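Hey,
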Amino acid sequence: DALPICQRQFVAFFRSIIASGGGGTPEHLYDVLTEGKADAALVASMLHYDEYSIDEIKDYLIGRGLKIRKA
């Protein structure tokens, strides 16, 4: 599970964390950005396989209360 790793890195180093790999759903992104304290996350595999559109991902995260640029 990547969340504990992100949490430890944030606490230990106070650096920006970009999560990469392992996220397959908008729910995973939400978890790593909130519980995992990541500053950003890569979503290439979600987009390459046409599972989600950028707008679907952003709408989900905005709906959960995260501040995401819509443009």
